[in-house]
Design brief:
Elements lengths: L11 H9 L3 E5 L4 H12 L3 E6 L2 H13 L3 E6 L5 H15 L4 E4 L12 H33 L3 E4 L13 H20 L1
Parallel strand pairs: 1-2, 1-4, 2-3, 4-5
Helix pairs in contact: 2-3, 4-5, 5-6
Length: 191
């Protein structure tokens, strides 16, 4: 048996840091929840972060928190349902930080309702489709040309385990997340 010490491999967090250091990360839905965590962890790993959210105050608060810890960030009010606003978001990222290296399409809502409640749920379902599906499409389209021009970039679309199978009460939400997964596969095959 070899008693030589086993070298300690570089921890995963250090490897991840090297990939984000000096990069520009845009996070939709970055004002709270999972998006906030993504924004904060990206900044901790050296990325300049554009925190985008329909709640502009929340986006600014996250950005200010990142800057208070010596990170680089800006908060931007964005409604991902409006392609023009998402295009302006990408332009703002490029203007402020010079590039968009990672576009994280995270904004989403989860309206749970049974199909028997369709009359009451219709507006929330429409909003879910607009944010969860069209919002991701707008993020892809807004960042695509910029990334091609830069010669680099990654699009990360947040889906859900709900995309894997139908569940009572989550039919529309699950459908949007399944569509995001398929759209992501299609984008990957095209690029």
């Amino acid at each position: 048996m070899n008693d030589a010490p086993v070298p300690n491999p570089t921890p995963q967090s250090e490897r991840a840091a090297s990939h984000l250091d000096g990069r520009v990360v845009v996070v939709t839905g970055g004002g709270g929840g999972f998006g906030r965590l993504i924004a904060e962890m990206s900044a901790e790993r050296g990325a300049a972060v554009v925190v985008a959210d329909i709640d502009g105050v929340a986006a600014e608060q996250v950005a200010e928190g990142i800057e208070a810890r010596a990170g680089r960030a800006v908060g931007v009010t964005v409604d991902v349902c409006d392609p023009g606003q998402v295009e302006a978001l990408v332009a703002r990222a490029v203007e402020r930080f010079g590039a968009v290296d990672v576009m994280i399409n995270n904004a989403g809502v989860m309206p749970l309702a049974f199909f028997a409640d369709h009359a009451a749920a219709a507006a929330a379902w429409d909003r879910c489709i607009d944010i969860n599906l069209k919002g991701v499409l707008h993020g892809i389209c807004a960042s695509y040309d910029q990334m091609v021009a830069q010669g680099r970039g990654h699009v990360v679309n947040i889906s859900s385990i709900y995309a894997n199978a139908g569940t009572a009460g989550s039919g529309v939400y699950s459908a949007t997340k399944a569509a995001v997964a398929v759209m992501s596969d299609s984008l990957r095959k095209e690029t």
